[in-house]
Amino acid sequence: MGRTIFITGGASGIGRAVARHFAARGWRVGLGDVDEAGMAETLALLPAGAGSACPLDVRDPAQWADALGRFAGESGRIDVLFNNAGIAYGGDLLALSEDEIDRLIAVNLRGVLNGARAAHPHLRRTAPGSCLLNTASAAALYGTGGIAVYSATKSAVRAITEALDGEWEADGIAVRSLMPSFIDTPLLAGPANASTSRAKRDAVVAAGLEFTPVERVAEAAWDAVHGGRLHTLVGKTARKLGFAARWAPGIIRRRGKAIRSSG
Q1: In angstroms, how far is CA 72 from the centroid of its own chain?
Q2: pTM for this entry
Q3: Which one in 7, 140, 185, 256 has a CA-CA gap of 20 to 30 Å to 84?
Q4: DSSP letters of 84-130?
Q5: What's the domain range around 14?
Q6: Residue 261: what pLDDT?
Q7: CB-facing half-sphere around the CA of 107: CA atoms within 13 A
């Protein structure tokens, strides 16, 4: 029986790229997302019969149980859960509404916890060799002005990955994270928050930062599932930030303040 991966946020961006990468290598793919039209577009890009989709709001544990149960019933197993669904709001903390803060925490943090809890029994049945893969971010390497809440949620995902890597070792389940820098996906298309009309993508361009191709993230996901590295940094910005956060955090702090004061 072939190996399988269930991907949240599979309607576009990183989720779609990872679905295509794994399906091209013979894996069966399950997609979960609130965007049913987007999931249909992703399925159309996969080899015939290689995938299926289920509506999923990651904030709802009952929907998680239903989606993973259906996929496991169709495919006979779940080898990897890719906890990838996430949202992004930018802007200073005081510029965000209470609803925006609550949604960031509910989707980016609680959604990852819900996925881990729902996936554990499925992954334990296919262990050893099964994997929980979480999408964190380069923003988890050092708190960044202008995305304080987003950075906090992704730092939490990093911590969850580290904690579960220890908790689930006895079950034979690997736990890994991806920490990409900026990826030019629909996540950056809209405004940073409700108080501005400036697209998140424009802010990245104005800061002179590079975009990492989404296909590179898909390759990193494959390597993370099959390798032993706990956190995989993806993109030049992520690697530079990772180095500086470890060896020269003062430089990051000063640069962050300079960017905020000139913005």
Answers
A1: 21
A2: 0.86
A3: 256
A4: -------S-GGGS-HHHHHHHIIIIIIHHHHHHHHHHHHHHHH-SSE
A5: 4-262
A6: 43
A7: 20
